[in-house]
From TrEMBL:
<keyword id="KW-1133">Transmembrane helix</keyword>
<keyword id="KW-0472">Membrane</keyword>
<feature type="transmembrane region" description="Helical">
    <location>
        <begin position="156"/>
        <end position="178"/>
    </location>
</feature>
<protein>
    <submittedName>
        <fullName>Exopolysaccharide biosynthesis protein</fullName>
    </submittedName>
</protein>
<keyword id="KW-0812">Transmembrane</keyword>
<feature type="transmembrane region" description="Helical">
    <location>
        <begin position="185"/>
        <end position="208"/>
    </location>
</feature>
<feature type="transmembrane region" description="Helical">
    <location>
        <begin position="127"/>
        <end position="150"/>
    </location>
</feature>
<dbReference type="InterPro" id="IPR010331">
    <property type="entry name" value="ExoD"/>
</dbReference>
<feature type="transmembrane region" description="Helical">
    <location>
        <begin position="56"/>
        <end position="75"/>
    </location>
</feature>
<feature type="transmembrane region" description="Helical">
    <location>
        <begin position="28"/>
        <end position="49"/>
    </location>
</feature>
<dbReference type="Pfam" id="PF06055">
    <property type="entry name" value="ExoD"/>
</dbReference>
Length: 209
């Protein structure tokens, strides 16, 4: 299927995939640089993909979570261009593994794009909503850093919907992403609390407390 102008996410992702295929994108910075006008929303989608489509040898969790938190702060403050630490941007990425991520991600992104409708709930994609959306990206990014079993996919899905909704200017998709984000954060908190309680019970049972 060819990329079309009404599918900005898959169009931009195909462009980045082509750069990877020719060896022009081999670090996080080079990949993000290839996003073009898609900018911040597609960076959110791109960084959230490994949490939903886990692939070995990619820097997920702490690295992508930290980058998402920084992007969320910048987006919430109104920045239109990414300004991220060079040390993170210089992290190398295996070309073959990246290509596998894009092969698996593109069909799913195209499926979601079929349901997007620009102009719905327009206020959720405008400047007034940026602080709320930036905070949401920060919190969801932080949740990806936590070593919580099965804790990454729910925030990742919410981030992908937020990014695609912003890119298509579909406020309804953004709203769904926000609602899923709340559920994802509740899920992560519940699992974390359960793990801490189980650890407490184990410590008590062993007589260390």
């Amino acid at each position: 299927m060819s990329a079309t102008p009404d599918r900005p996410a898959s169009t931009a992702l195909r462009r980045v995939a082509d750069r990877i295929g020719t060896g022009q994108a081999t670090t996080i910075g080079m990949v993000l640089h290839g996003l073009g006008p898609a900018g911040v929303p597609l960076a959110v989608v791109l960084l959230a993909l490994p949490s939903v489509l886990p692939v070995p040898f990619l820097p997920t969790g702490p690295v992508t979570g930290l980058l998402l938190m920084m992007i969320g702060v910048e987006f919430g403050l109104g920045a239109r261009r990414l300004r991220l630490p060079g040390a993170l941007l210089r992290i190398g990425l295996p070309r073959a593994v990246l290509a596998a991520v894009f092969r698996r991600a593109l069909p799913r992104v195209e499926q979601i794009e079929r349901w997007l409708r620009p102009g719905r709930l327009r206020w959720l994609t405008g400047a007034a909503a940026r602080p709320l959306l930036g905070l949401s990206i920060v919190l969801l990014g932080f949740s990806l850093i936590l070593p919580v079993p099965f804790g990454n996919p729910p925030p990742g899905i919410a981030l992908i919907l937020l990014g695609l909704g912003l890119l298509a200017r579909d406020g309804a998709a953004v709203l769904v992403g926000l609602c899923l984000g709340l559920l994802a954060l509740a899920w992560v908190v519940a699992i974390s609390a359960g793990a801490l309680y189980a650890l407490h019970l184990a410590v008590v049972a062993l007589g260390w407390w």
